[in-house]
């Protein structure tokens, strides 16, 4: 089997196994353990200048090749253009995006530096798979370095309609860069259709023909096992005791404005206001590890959430009941799985999301004899795949409150009827199958 070269903004720490690993590292585990592979990208560290020679760490058949980023490149490429321009634009939030030519230049320079450092490490016949919005121009830069290998690109986040994307200055250049890839993958058919139309509008019809949907999944069986084991642990027994028999609602999201957290908190507030019967009978636990904490919009969101949590708890708390438990620390994956299994409802209401793996994890964590209900944003990429969820408009707190009330009251037979097909979809659409489908397209 040919070697697989994965390029991503962040490379997982070779020492970090298991407990806190999530996201891409988990999804690609199968692909990088069954063949020779290299994982190339940013080390997560900054230095005075961006490194030109990658640091190499070998672990069995897998080589990690990482570059430190210069301080100015970190600000321009990562904080500036990737997080400040592209992330909001791709999540349909042009109003939150800013554009700065210097940052855009930094973004292109880092992509060129990645390509230059990677090119000498490549072997004939390697399959190269670049991930996510940080790397639109990487393929074109690799071609400039003389790379002839097959190049794939997968976008983990949504792709908006061209009318939105073209609000980004230099959108045309970004689309022309994508045309260097042989396979271009997105999460949903809608995203794929949007990107095809955008490419066609820029005269890239041929590249539009290389765009397909490859919905990402999770290792459902492993997550189910984690959840089953977690509930046996002392820590979970203590947590259950602390709930004193109250129903649990769980939310798990990075602290990000795409996740719809303020609207969700107001939705929960509406549940307590409009359906007084739930007061003192339900506890909502929201796990929200801080992310991009050095970006102003994320700091503002954190303050907004602090205030909302304080107000909701202030309004409804009893001496022995806190309605909304809110944590900004990350929780180990097995503990999360345990929380999810115990929760009567999973509350997943992003304003936009490429896929949303939490929705799938919630489904996988459920007890097949007594599953909980999933309240899901219709703007999550997962929505078209999880038909048994209670779909809501995440901008409408009243709709969230109504769906939560329905979830709390849902009889077992309805919960089973909704959950079973979703469990099937989540198991079938595994991370492994996602990798295999993409690599089959890439390697023909
Ligand atoms: C991007 C796209 C797409 C969260 N808190 C903790 C924790 N997590 C884990 C979750 C889940 C992962 O992080 C988050 O994945 P999501 O898919 O929900 O969202 P993004 O981080 O925005 O990911 C998204 C994804 O890429 C994959 O393509 O689905 O649309 O935005 O696995 O469980 N894990 C641990 N502690 C936490 O506190 N251990």
From TrEMBL:
- Keywords recorded for this protein, A-Z: Glycosyltransferase, Transferase
> Does the keyword section mention Transferase?
yes
List GO BP terms, alphabetically.
trehalose biosynthetic process
CDD domains the UniProt entry points to: GT20_TPS
Q: Which GO terms describe its molecular function?
A: alpha,alpha-trehalose-phosphate synthase (UDP-forming) activity
Enzyme Commission designation: 2.4.1.15
Q: Which organism is it from?
A: uncultured Acetobacteraceae bacterium
Q: What is this protein called?
A: Alpha,alpha-trehalose-phosphate synthase [UDP-forming]
Looking up InterPro entries in the UniProt record yields:
Glyco_trans_20 (IPR001830)
Query: Family, per the entry?
Result: Belongs to the glycosyltransferase 20 family.
Q: Name one Pfam family in it.
A: Glyco_transf_20
């Amino acid at each position: 089997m040919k070697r697989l070269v994965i390029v991503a903004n962040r490379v997982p720490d070779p020492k970090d196994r298991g407990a806190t690993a999530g996201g891409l590292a988990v999804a690609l585990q199968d692909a990088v353990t069954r063949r020779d592979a290299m994982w190339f990208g940013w080390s997560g560290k900054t230095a005075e200048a961006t490194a030109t020679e990658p640091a190499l760490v070998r672990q069995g058949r897998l080589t990690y090749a990482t570059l430190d980023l210069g301080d100015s490149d970190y600000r321009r490429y990562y904080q500036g253009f990737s997080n400040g321009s592209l992330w909001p634009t791709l999540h349909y939030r042009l109003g939150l995006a800013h554009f700065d030519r210097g940052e855009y230049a930094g973004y292109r320079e880092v992509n060129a530096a990645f390509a230059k450092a990677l090119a000498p490490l490549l072997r004939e016949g390697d399959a190269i798979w670049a991930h996510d919005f940080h790397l639109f121009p990487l393929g074109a830069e690799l071609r400039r370095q003389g790379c002839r290998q097959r190049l794939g690109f997968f976008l983990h986040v949504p792709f908006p309609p061209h009318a939105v994307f073209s609000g980004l200055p230099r959108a045309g250049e970004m689309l022309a860069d994508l045309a260097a890839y042989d396979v271009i993958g997105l999460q949903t058919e809608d995203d794929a259709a949007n990107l095809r139309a955008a490419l066609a509008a820029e005269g890239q019809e041929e590249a539009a023909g290389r765009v397909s949907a490859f919905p990402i999944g999770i290792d459902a069986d492993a997550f189910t096992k984690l959840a089953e084991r977690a509930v046996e642990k002392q820590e979970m027994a203590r947590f259950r005791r602390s709930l004193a028999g109250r129903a649990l609602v769980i939310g798990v999201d990075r602290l990000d404005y795409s996740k719809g957290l303020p609207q969700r908190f107001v939705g929960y507030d509406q549940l307590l206001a409009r359906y007084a019967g739930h007061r003192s009978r339900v506890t909502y636990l929201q796990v929200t590890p801080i992310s991009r904490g050095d970006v102003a919009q994320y700091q503002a969101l954190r303050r907004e959430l602090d205030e909302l949590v304080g107000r909701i708890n202030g309004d409804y708390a009893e001496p022995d009941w806190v309605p909304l438990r809110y944590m900004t620390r990350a929780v180990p994956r097995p503990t999360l799985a345990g929380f999810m299994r115990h929760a009567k409802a999973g509350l997943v209401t992003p304003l936009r999301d490429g896929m949303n793996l939490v929705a799938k994890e919630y489904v996988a964590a459920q007890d097949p004899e007594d599953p909980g209900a999933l309240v899901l944003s219709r703007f999550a990429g997962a929505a078209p795949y999880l038909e048994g969820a209670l779909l809501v408009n995440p901008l409408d707190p009243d709709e969230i409150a109504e769906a939560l009330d329905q979830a709390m009251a849902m009889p077992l037979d309805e919960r089973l009827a909704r959950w079973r097909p979703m469990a099937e979809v989540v198991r079938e659409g595994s991370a492994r199958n996602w990798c295999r489908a993409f690599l089959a397209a890439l390697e023909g």
